[in-house]
Amino acid sequence: AARGRVEKQTWSRRRLGSLAVLAVAGLAPPLPANGDQQQSSPRKLKPLCEGCLEEPVEVDYFGGTVGAEPPRVQWADLADAGREAFEQLAGAGKVLIIENASMGGAMAGWSCERLAKEFPEARMRREYDWVTNPDDRNLQPMGQSSWVNEKTSGEESKDRLRQDKKAPPFAPFYWGVREHRNGDIGNKKVVKRIRELIAASVPRFMDAQNDKSMFDNAEFWLGAKGTGARAHMDSHCISTLSVVLSGERRWRVGPVPRMPKGAGRSKDGEVFFDDGVAYKLGWEPMFEFTVREGEAVLFPPGWIHETLNTADGCTVALTTQFNLPTPVRYYRSYYGRLRR
What we know:
This protein is of the alpha+beta class and 340 residues long.
């Protein structure tokens, strides 16, 4: 017992905090108590083919509760543990809910009305509007704030709801800051200001050098209760952080499907599992949970995801990707399915 007490005292406060956060997501063993630690061998899935690498069982690797929440951590825990904890979590491609993630950020608490007031000259578009806006032009002035209460069913909405009754019934608005080089999200003054605001919104538990990648990949998802993004898989190869600035969103997310050998790869330039594909194939998400104002969800590349705004009024979420760290451990763990 005495040896255990001495051993505990050798751990710095920061190291203890880091281990506590990592243990929540299954990245660290329990804190040492008596020096005798026994770890069971991680469970593996059957290889996809002869010579293919084994993959960890998803529920063991990602933790959380299947059908409910992934692991949840507090901003204060990450801050106390230092950047080391977040670097390891993101590097492993963990799925997390981060409480108070917008704390201290320049846009914390911003509402749809605030965005419309601050950026009246910005332009955005309604999603799933293929008939009237086939070229995805940004036709909606943000300053004309009637969109705040708008509930419009997107194209093929009835099909999606028939395939999955939990699919979002109404189309959200999308301000694709990442498209700023196209020149139609707003004038130079708008682009300059939103760049500065995003740089001042990088959470303190992240590397500040992510400001550029977070701006270059930034998307604002906006809309009334019942609007949301349909289940889809993005084509980028870096991790996603989505912060609810105001309102509330229900998320449904799930890992990259396992494709048997010979199933083929998606074509160059093709977005695999784009709108409708997941529903048609009977997608079953691994996690279903709510992210509230100030909270964020972190998830790795390739995860199928869907959102639904659930708060009364209009919800604002800033969704973006970041370069640091690269989710190397995640790629190594699930290389067999990610390469397909």
